[in-house]
Every structure is written in C-alpha cells, then in structure tokens.
Amino acid sequence: MPSAPPAAAAAAEKKPPAADRVYRHVKQAVLDRSYAGGTLLTEGGLAEAVGVSRTPVREALLKLEVEGLLKLYPKKGALVLPVSAQEIADVVETRLLVEEHAARRAVPAPAALITRLERLLAEQRELAEAGDLAAVSDKDRSFHAEIVRNAGNQILSRLYDQLRDRQLRMGVAVMEAHPGRIAANLTEHAELLEAIRSSDAEAAAACVRSHVGRVRELIRGEDR
C-alpha cells in the first residue's frame, strides 16, 4: 500500500485533536456571541458542525463547563450560560483595582509603551471601520492589558489575564446593544493614552475609572 505524500502526512500530523477543535469552535462562538447566552447546544449538532464524532464533543463540553461558559444537562445538551449581574460586578471591580493601579504605574511612560498603545489604538480603529465586533473587543482588551503588563507585577498580570474570556464576551455584548459605544471607546482610549503620554498619573487613573464605569452601566441588564 503506497504511503501518503510527505505534505499530506505533515498536514495530518499538525491537525489538532478532535476535542481541541470542538473546544475552540464552541469557545470562540460563545465569546463572539454566535452562541448567545441561553442557547442550547446538542452533541449531535456540534459533532456535525465540526466534523467529528460525539466522544470528543463531550470532552470539549466538559472542559468548557469547568471554565464556567456552559452548563451540561445529561441527554439534552449544553446550555450557554448568560453573563450574570454578579459576574459583571465582579469583573468590573477587579478591573478597576488592577487597571487604576497600572495606569498610575505607567507614568512616566517608556517610549515603547506609548508606541505599542498607539499601534493598538490604530488597529482598533481599523477593525471598528470594518465592523468586526469580536476583533474590536479583542483589541480593546489588548490595549488595557498592555498597560497592566507595563506595571511589572506578574501576579497582577496573571490575574488580569484570567478575566480575558469574560471581558471579550461582555465587550461584544455592549457593542451589539450600544453601537455608539464603539466610537466612545476609541475616544476614551485616546484620552487615556494622552494622560499617560503627558505623565499625569491621576488623570490616567481617572480615565480608567470613568471608562470602565461606563461599560458597567451599559452592560448591566444584558444577558441576565
């Protein structure tokens, strides 16, 4: 029996395991709200969508349940969990504690930080013009994460990274419900960048407090 061509064999070796493919498919759809809160997913439907058997689907759904994105119901499927009011409050409180501290520590800002923030803001503008809400939310989160990383506290950075999935889903929810928020976010990011560039620590912290607080007010009531 002839062996597979080298290129085909290499492609087969690099193909992610079935459970990983299902996991990434479902997680991305939950984060960008293709699977909105309250959606009931079935093993058969997911198996067909990804092109795998049901066994890796179960494995992926169990992992996503542990991460708090789904609730499994035997013989029925998996429910995409809505973003609760308590989760919103917890995420915003944690963000304020971490980001206000990081904004103050960003001053005086190294030139490299200013350059990275300028690039991220420009990329966010381009994505907003293209109407890619999931990508805008991801770039929005990256802008804030860059400031947090600059603070130099690895424990705080890891804590902030743990909020990533929740931030992305909440960000898309806000922009879907309030399209005008996209332009407002860009303006507020520009104001925060200017405060950091001007070496005004308290103004930078105030920008974070106002920006994150507005997001909390807008998202309150979404996906309950």
UniProtKB/TrEMBL annotation:
Keywords: DNA-binding, Transcription, Transcription regulation. It comes from the Bacteria. One of its GO terms (molecular function) is DNA-binding transcription factor activity. SMART domains: FCD (SM00895), HTH_GNTR (SM00345). Pfam families: FCD (PF07729), GntR (PF00392). Residues 16-83 form the HTH gntR-type domain. This is GntR family transcriptional regulator. The lineage of its organism: Bacteria, Bacillati, Actinomycetota, Actinomycetes, Kitasatosporales.
